[in-house]
Amino acid sequence: DLSAQSMRQSAISALGQIHAEPELVVPVLTNALSDTNRFLLRNAALALGEFGRDAKSAVPALFKLLEAKYPDVRLFAAKAIKKIDPEAADLRKADVDAAIPPEWRQ
What we know:
Shape: globular
Helix content: over 70%
Oligomer: single chain
Order of helices and strands: HHHHHHH
Low-confidence stretches: none
Largest sheet: none
Number of strands: 0
């Protein structure tokens, strides 16, 4: 149902913007990374990035998203990893960089 999908996407985005209670919210957002909806995946990655180091438990799931078929999902996952765990992003720099389409690199 399109309406339900839209509400889920909005709720995921709001959780990142509110940025409260990471011990409760980060697992919910991490779970959302296993969804198949492109926009939900993107919103969940973006929201996790807003939690910074408090979302470190999500990094393995975000690394899996670097292989997503959608370039925008890969981009948001890469950006989230860089915000959450810069050291892990540096260790796997080739993976992170390869996930971002060349035309989207800054």
